[in-house]
Each structure stands twice: as C-alpha cells, then as structure tokens.
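User: I'm writing a tutorial on reading structure tokens. Could you give me a worked example: one chain, its sequence, then its tokens, then a sentence or two explaining what the tokens reveal?
Assistant: Sure. Here is the example chain.
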Amino acid sequence: MNAPFVLPGSMRLLDLDDPGELARIEGFLARHHGASAFHRPCWFVSVARATGNRALALVQQRGDEIVAFLPLDAIHSPVFGRLLASSGFAVGGGLLTTPDADEGAVFAALEELALRLSCPSIELRGGVLPEARGGWSLKRESHCNFARALAADDEAELLAIPRKQRAEVRKGLAGDLQVETGCGERDRAAHYAVFAESYRNLGTPVFPRALLDSVIDGFGDDADILTVRHGGEPVASVITLYHRGAAMPYWGGGTHAARGLRANDRMYFELMRHARGRGCSHFDFGRSKTGSGAYHFKRNWGFEPEPLSYATWTAPGARTRDADPTSAGLSLQIKVWQKLPLAVANRLGPLIARGIG
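And here are its predicted structure tokens:
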C-alpha cells in the first residue's frame, strides 16, 4: 500500500496496488494533452520497483474526478541523499492540471509530503511549475529538447539531415553493419553490454539492468531495442519508447569501436526508418544539456533546440542536492570513474546509480 498519509483538503495519494486506480490514472493521461511517457505508471512505478525506491501518485480531486496529477518517485541514495522526483530517472514528468485544479494546494501538499518522507529535495522535470519562492527555484534553458517530424521516406530523411552529418550517415549505411530490433534476451544482453561500456567511458555509474528490463516490460509493445552489430558483436544499441506517435530513443550508447564504424549514425537513421514503419510521425531525440556535445550532435542532425524549464525545492536548512553528472563539483569523480576497469564499473555502478534518480 502507498497511502499511509492523510493529506489536506482534496489532495490524496492513490493506491498503486489497486488496478482500478491505475486505470483511473491512464484514463486521465489519455485525456490530457500534456501527458508524456514519463507520467505513465509503466514508467514511474516500473523504475521504483526495479531500483528499490518508492512510487507515489499525488492527485487533487473534485468529487471523484482527478483534476491534478503528479507522478513521483521517492529516491534514497547514501551518496546523494533523499529526493522526490517527477519523474525519477526521467527527463520529463511534472504536474498535470485541468482548469479546475488549485495548483497552490498541490505544491503545498507536495512540500508536506516531502517533509513527511524525510526528502529534503524535490525536482519537477516539466509540467506546471511553482513560482520561485519559499524554497523553490527555477532552471530555464539549462537543458533543451530536440524533436521534429519524420520525413516521408529514407531519401527525404537523408535530405533533412545537414550535409556534413548526412555524409557520416551515408558512410554508416555503406558499412558492414547488421541491424536488429527486438525485446528478447539477446537484444537486452547486447544493449546492456554496450550501454554499460558507454556509461563507463563517460564517467557515469551505469543503471542496474533490472531498471531497463522493468521499463521494457512495463511498456510492452510501446518499447523496443535496436542494436547495430559488426562481425556479430554489438557496437551500438538503444532502447526506444513510443508515445502518441513519437519515437524517443532514451537509453543508448556505443562502444569505442562505434565511432570509427559510424555505428551510432547508422543506429539513429535506422531507428527513424523503424519508427516510420511502426507508424510514428515524429522523432523525439530527447534532452541534452545546453552547449554539451550531445546538444551539438543533435543540432548537426537538423534538430532545433527547445529550451526546457525545471523546478527544484530545498527544505529549510537543507543543502542543495547535486547529482548532476555534468556538475563541476563531480568532475574529479568522473575522471576517476572513466579509468576504472569495466568489470569494476559494472559491479559498482548500479549500486550508486539506483539512487541518482
């Protein structure tokens, strides 16, 4: 059960063990134009289950009708502390409301919930945001999202890519590479091997494989894995989520060999082709930190940045949480992590990453 607290007024926590409550959430999301894949129970419940954290669904009601919904993951880390995130391990989420909602009451209940759960930090990664006061601060344009419509066919897709990047894609298409898609054990094992190496090379603790498996299982037909192989060995791989006609490559990476083989370029072009075959109309390249290498990589593909806004809250007297892998304060740890043997990084990484959120 996840409703031990009595919240004021029209606020309550839904029982996420109740299939009827899950159906109510899905019904609300189906009607709300701002709902993302990260609002769905198959995301925030799945990631909590796989990481040993806790999922919560905070709602405001008018009678039996949901007028505000906030998915939450209560995350505990011995390294980074406790956090309420919407949504955990995601680049999106946040509060969804209807015109009948009282947003101020929702944020007040959220602060109370955080204190009762001993979470001195809250992060809202999208949705309706509070004003920057009373412990809340807003971040604007620190990250950007990249999305555009898919082209009608392969040739049009190539022409939509700027000339320099298009040449790299053509080299990848001409290379001796094999492409596979699926969700079976072969696909999952290949993906995680590539993903773990990629994260070690970036200096970032890798997520536990159970997290990735849980999300794939939770999304069912709305998720799959595309892997590029060279000589039978996986060199690039990505998990993609499908939501409302958009394909979002989310957890991906490549080995050291991938760059010379243009395997990452091949992977994303093949994924665009695959997404069209699934009936998708848009390609959501996801979020990147403004000015980062990934930011410029996506611009090179012809995607335009769309600034994102986030909100964070810190309890009175608490220290601001810092778990951003791009933070200057973590630069030394990143350099050390990049030098770890892969087997050591793969063993220690999931123990740390399950609490990053």
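What the tokens reveal: Residues 11-140+309-321 form a domain with the Aminopeptidase fold (CATH 3.40.630.30). The chain has twelve helices and 13 strands.
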